[in-house]
Amino acid sequence: MKKTYKIEVDCANCANKMETAAQKTEGVKDATVNFMTLKMNVEFEDGQDPAEVMQQVRKNCKKVEDDCEIYL
Questions:
Q1: 35 neighbors 15 (Cβ within 8 angstroms)
Q2: 7-20: per-residue pLDDT in tens?
Q3: At what angle do helices 50-64 and 12-23 cross, to 10 degrees?
């Protein structure tokens, strides 16, 4: 399953950090962040609950860029 989320981030480097953090989150098959459109595309592993996984993605992104936001 793939979903797109609106994000808020200050710079392209921060967006790259968010992308890496999201990709390393358990339950995420793939994730891409587009700084120009301020969107995060997430593909979830089979059988995962997107709402639960995205809570962890948000926590992991906040660790690397504390002023970022993901609108779930």
A1: yes
A2: 999 999 999 999 99
A3: 130
Cβ-contact 62, 11 below 8 angstroms: no
- This prediction's pTM: 0.94
Number of H helices and number of E strands within the chain? 2, 4
Q: Which residue has the tokens 């593909």?
A: 43
What does the CA dihedral 53, 55, 59, 22 come to, rounded to 10 degrees? 40
How far the first Cα of the chain sits from its last, in Å, is 15
Spatial separation of the C-alpha atoms in residues 5 and 20, rounded to whole Å: 16
